[in-house]
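Q: Structure for this?
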Amino acid sequence: GAGVSQSPSNKVTEKGKDVELRCDPISGHTALYWYRQSLGQGLEFLIYFQGNSAPDKSGLPSDRFSAERTGGSVSTLTIQRTQQEDSAVYLCASSLLGHTGELFFGEGSRLTVL
Amino acid sequence: GDSVTQMEGPVTLSEEAFLTINCTYTATGYPSLFWYVQYPGEGLQLLLKATKADDKGSNKGFEATYRKETTSFHLEKGSVQVSDSAVYFCALSSGGNTPLVFGKGTRLSVIA
């Protein structure tokens, strides 16, 4: 497709389980971002990938969160030992160049931790 | 660090009313400023942008002017439609090695 694709769109899990969220960016976009959207909290930056450079992980809230980007394309965000406060919508975005501000967002993955 | 503050919602307006959503920012240097919109069931999409002081961004009848003296980037539309119902996010980019910083969003509901 032409846009950013995220899966699953909805995920319900039990506290303590691990989850993986996937993002397929727009073809040719070198920059990829993960944000978290919590109720009343706006968008919280998590991690940023640019080409083959080391990712900017400065926004990851704890060491339970990790992400990788294989082959400069698909990215996976992994949350280990999920907690109820991890419940949020996780948004992926890509852009042709990094940090220009013109991001293309996916529809998000809604995570609910029971 | 950089931050964006926008008016809290929700905002409810009648069709054809005038809209203002306030946004102010704190940043070092000269950031670029953006408004993103999230329609129900869709991903965020760029609505308009301005890259330097006194620039006016516009799209779909919406406008916002980059005011350096008041560090503001208020979103306006002269006559809203039901289809404008969405969540609006103000954001800034300082470039360099810093990611886009978003405000908390303002939900707009337009009733017929």
